[in-house]
Amino acid sequence: MESVKSNAVSYGVILSACLLVVLGDLRSLISPTGYWALWGVVVLVGFLAAPERLNLKVSRELGIYMLGFLLLFFAFGLSALVNLDVQTFYQALKVMCIGLVFVCIYTHSQRLEQSSYFSISAISICVGFCCFFFAKYFLVGLYIELGDGRQGSQFAYPGVLWKTCAFFAGFVIIGMLFDAKNKVVSLLVLMAALYVLVMDSSRTGFIVFLFELILIFLLSVHVRPQVTLLLCFLGLIAVTTGLILYSSGYDFMNMNDSPLVVDRLAAGDPIRSRMLADGLNQFESCMPFGCGFGSTTTQVDGEPMVVHNAFLTSGGDMGALGLIGLLILVFTPLLIFISRLWRYAKYQYKEKQVFIYSVAAFGGSLGFALLLMLHPFSTELSEWGIWMIMTSALSVLSHQFLVGEQGPQS
């Protein structure tokens, strides 16, 4: 009975963290302090309601992540001292708090079953969709539409709304295709996820989601090769038919009404290219201790703007130590997954179902790395919450690879 209670607490902790990520701009309604306080409540409940989850024994994997946070903390502190910048030291304290939250999320995730991530993701998508839908059609004071047509709400601005789909839809798709989850419910949830993705029209969001789909396709080739071959054949027929109709003059799609994200992808982004060049220059000039948080900027329309690449800004702001710490945190979960998958591939006995959801978590972790390549470094929990959830999920789900190392038990 006690185990069931603590498992319920772990489920609630992870679900609450996911909802706070989906509603990442809730801080605009309740203040940034209020948003951090909600995360604090989640951590407090996690520590007090199931204390047996938290012990003094630290796994090697968790130790590596804590080392990454420690390096980031000291990088911020050292940069603050060198540049006499109080704001940079304040960011160091925030990094320390993020590390504490991660320990709670990571520890509780270790007790969740694979299927729990399907239901948590489905609930998160539904909450994100409902908040946007009601803001757009009923609570119009909370609705946001930018000048270029991108949409969002006070709960999740344009540029944040897409994360609801890109980081959680993969778990729903995998559950629907490979884990016998309710197909109707899964399709409805997936439609809601795609709706908010299109409404946001984020290029980053579509790229991350495309990576997820590619990984799921590769998973399908491995788990259900015959079904995958049939779908590819049907897709080829559909594309060929469309090309024949189009070449014959049948205009079945008005290109003037193409989705906003298509226009944005086609337009390119020359400003970002200039950002990267300026960021690289400041990265080199600010080594080895960095020039302080928010100092790696470029000029856009005569105004300074932070360079949209977290790896360049971490080095330019916090120096070499900050860059190393960030690299450890972002790429360690990916490397651990690959090493475990490599060991799993060598097993004589393989249970294909054991790793299906880890593919979605791997896609989420890979997506976060891509996110950092296209966005500035942040010390907000709305951003790092994604990393915490995906890294924790990837850890527990890929660890199940090793369970079958000895083969089937008699």
3D structure, described in words:
The protein has a domain at 113-268. It is 70% helix and 3% strand. The protein contains 16 helices and four strands. It has helices at 2-22, 27-30, 32-49, 60-83, 86-109, 114-137, 163-166, 169-178, 183-200, 203-223, 225-247, 260-267, 270-285, 310-345, 356-374, 381-399, and strands at 143-145, 151-153, 297-300, 303-306. A hairpin with a 2-residue loop joins strand 3 and strand 4. Helix 6 packs across helix 8, helix 6 (114-137) crosses helix 9 (183-200) and helix 14 (310-345) runs antiparallel to helix 15 (356-374). The chain is globular.
Low-confidence stretches: 250-258, 406-410
Structural class: mainly alpha
Ends: how far apart?
29 Å
Oligomeric form of this entry?
single chain
SSE order: HHHHHHEEHHHHHHHEEHHH
Global mean pLDDT: 84
Shape: globular
Number of helices: 16
Proportion of helical residues = over 70%
Q: Tell me the number of strands.
A: 4
**Strand order, largest beta sheet:** 1-2
Radius of gyration: 22 Å
The profile of the biggest β sheet is:
2 strands, antiparallel
Strand proportion: under 5%
InterPro entries: WaaL-like
Keywords: Membrane, Transmembrane, Transmembrane helix
Organism: Pseudomonas fragi
Protein name: Polymerase
